[in-house]
Amino acid sequence: MKNNSYNRLIKILILSTVLGCVLPGLLIAQFTLSSEIRPRVELNRGYKSLAVEGQDASLISTQRTRLNSMFKNEYVLTKLVLQDVRQWGNQPQLVGNENNSISVHEAWAEVLFNDKFSLRAGRQELIYDDHRIFGNVGWAQQARSHDLALFKYKGEWDIHAGFAFHQNNNITNADYNGPDAYKSMQFFWAHQQWEATKLSLLFLNNGVAFPLSPGFGVEQKTKYSQTLGGRFVTGLDAVNIAANAYLQVGKDAGNRDLNAYNILFEASGKLNPETGITGGFEMLSGTAFNEDGDKNKSFTPFYGTNHKFNGFMDYFYVGNHINNAGLIDIYAKISHKMNKLSFGGHIHYFAAAADISSDAGKNLGTEIDLSLGWAFKPMVRFDFGWSTMFASENMQLLKGGDHTAFQQWGYVMLTVTPDFIK
Prior knowledge:
Blueprint: H1 2-26, E1 30-45, E2 58-72, E3 76-87, E4 103-112, E5 117-124, E6 146-153, E7 158-165, E8 184-193, E9 197-211, E10 220-236, E11 239-251, E12 257-272, E13 275-284, E14 295-296, E15 327-338, E16 341-351, E17 363-377, E18 380-391, H2 393-399, E19 407-416, E20 419-421
Parallel strand pairs: 12-14
Antiparallel strand pairs: 1-2, 1-19, 1-20, 2-3, 3-4, 4-5, 5-6, 6-7, 7-8, 8-9, 9-10, 10-11, 11-12, 12-13, 13-15, 15-16, 16-17, 17-18, 18-19
């Protein structure tokens, strides 16, 4: 009994000391501490590539766990996000001291020079416009973040300039054969907003290390591609119009001449306050099967949230379909909200943007995506989804598998986001 009282006294003294040190600073600053726990179960029989007849569906459970902290005062803003991503069953019940179980998803500091200029440096998410070129890939449990310095200006035009340079642990040279998608990257983004109109302009210079000869430790040269274009959004009475246009030139990772483009046109409106509809067209240029081997006409959306585009079954540009026949996506979407429930239905017609072969057509298939969200409580949300692909024989030429087999993918996801300190 005495030991229990003594232990409680020690805990109270420690807590009082910590609060005595922290609270005076919090009175003139802002600090938040929150978490995210997001388990998801997925059913897969034809996700990302076509299943074959007789193939069993697989069931996989994954989980993302995050601890988020932010601090802000009048001249500095910081963010730290610790993350654990796992597949249920890939770690023993008796856990040892395992490598890489906890990672740093974000760790950056932003110095606020004044109300217009700031510098953010460290590991950070990049999210711009509709996520087509830069997005955080939030659907993926691991998500995406970058190591870079970001200069920001806030005025009549909001202007961001980002700079990243990567190299190996060997500091005696500037070679890079690491896991990231680029060795050197710079981008410039400018954004202006009027009453009902927004305009964004983007320039991305993406450098990939290219070996000058086969083998390890050989001399490297960085090959740069340039992506330039932007996004335009405006409101016309009851209809919102959005358009993207991007051009890619320079050299690809294989040292081929790059000449590619991406265009998107989308119109959206509301049938009533609870129901919205959207229709759109997107084209990402592709390389024909008989194209000159020194030329690449396939557009790459690089670091976007590609799961957001071109169907939830991720047949295109989610770690796949790069330097391929491109894509034409004609789509219609409907959404409806009712109390704590939200419903979504999408239909996509897919076609190749370039010739697949001498005797193949361009039709790839049609995908249907259905989703349901339930905001059970302020910090608790359930999401459900189911998708199917009606693939053509041309899709089978690109993806393998069997286009006549029944393709489906579905998920159930729980998201809990408690605020510990706010």
